[in-house]
């Protein structure tokens, strides 16, 4: 019998939360070189990331490295009016941050900091689990699936790249019709790629 999505979420969240602070730190440093090896990174200027929570791979060292190389970083914010959708706001060292309804850190909403999703070069997405086919299992809210859906199967718009610890890989995931597979997933040890 295959595991349900909820069972997989629970199992993988426990696995990544069991990583020691040294393992988390090492993974966050190794992630920087893996991300920098992506062919799309050289030309990318507007990059969406997120602030890690619940044992996710720590993105702060990567964010700081990208700031240092002159890239602009944007973070997701839950859309205040369009239910289930995300906005992306510029994140700078001076940005004011707050907690959203899920307890996740995001920038305080400011109209002038918003970038249209279509103008992002890369969206690095969080995920709970992934499989060898590029399927991504998130927390179940569907925010990233809705964000990426308009660009699926097109050559324009942002490239979506998943970020995960190596322990978040499973052999295969149960999927739903709305799930959007990723073409690339980066872990601290390697880059996974699939054809579109």
Keywords, separated by commas or semicolons:
two-stranded antiparallel ribbon, FTHF_cligase, magnesium, single chain, about 200 residues, ligase, globular, Rossmann fold, 5-formyltetrahydrofolate cyclo-ligase activity, 4 helices, alpha/beta
The total count of strands amounts to 12
Strand content: 15-25%
> Assembly state here?
single chain
CATH arch. level architecture: 3-Layer(aba) Sandwich
* Helicity, as a percent range: 10-25%
- How many separate helices? 4
Going by helix content, strand content and strand pairing, the class is: alpha/beta
Instruction: State the distance separating the first and last CA atoms.
Output: 30 Å
Notes on the protein architecture:
The longest helix is centred in the first third of the chain and has 16 residues, at 21-36. The protein has four helices and twelve strands. The strands form three sheets. The chain has an eight-stranded mixed sheet. It has a single domain (5-193), classed as NagB/RpiA/CoA transferase-like (Rossmann fold), CATH 3.40.50.10420. Helix 2 packs parallel to helix 3. It is of the alpha/beta class. The chain is globular. Strand 8 and strand 9 form a beta hairpin. The protein has helices at 5-17, 21-36, 60-68, 143-148, and strands at 46-48, 72-78, 86-91, 97-99, 105-107, 114-115, 122-125, 129-130, 136-137, 159-163, 184-186, 191-193.
Short description, anyone?
By secondary structure, the chain is α/β, with parallel strands linked by helices.
How do the helices and strands line up, and which of them pair or pack?
Blueprint: H1 5-17, H2 21-36, E1 46-48, H3 60-68, E2 72-78, E3 86-91, E4 97-99, E5 105-107, E6 114-115, E7 122-125, E8 129-130, E9 136-137, H4 143-148, E10 159-163, E11 184-186, E12 191-193
Parallel strand pairs: 1-2, 1-7, 7-10, 10-11
Antiparallel strand pairs: 2-3, 3-6, 4-5, 8-9, 11-12
């Amino acid at each position: 019998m295959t595991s349900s999505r909820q069972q997989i979420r629970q199992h993988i969240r426990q696995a990544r939360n069991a990583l020691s602070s040294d393992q988390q730190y090492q993974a966050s440093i190794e992630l920087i070189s893996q991300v920098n090896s992506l062919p799309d990174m050289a030309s990318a200027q507007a990059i969406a990331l997120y602030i890690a929570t619940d044992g996710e791979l720590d993105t702060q060292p990567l964010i700081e490295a990208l700031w240092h190389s002159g890239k602009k970083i944007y973070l997701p914010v839950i859309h205040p009016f369009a239910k289930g959708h995300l906005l992306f706001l510029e994140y700078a060292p001076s940005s004011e941050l707050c907690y959203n309804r899920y307890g996740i850190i995001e920038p305080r909403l400011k109209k002038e900091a918003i970038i249209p999703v279509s103008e992002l070069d890369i969206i690095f997405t969080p995920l709970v689990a992934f499989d060898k086919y590029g399927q991504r299992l998130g927390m179940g809210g569907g925010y990233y699936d809705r964000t990426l859906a308009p660009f699926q199967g097109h050559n324009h718009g942002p490239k979506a790249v998943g970020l995960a610890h190596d322990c978040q890989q499973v052999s295969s995931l149960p999927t739903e019709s709305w799930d959007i597979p990723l073409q690339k997933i980066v872990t601290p040890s390697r880059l996974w790629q699939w054809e579109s």
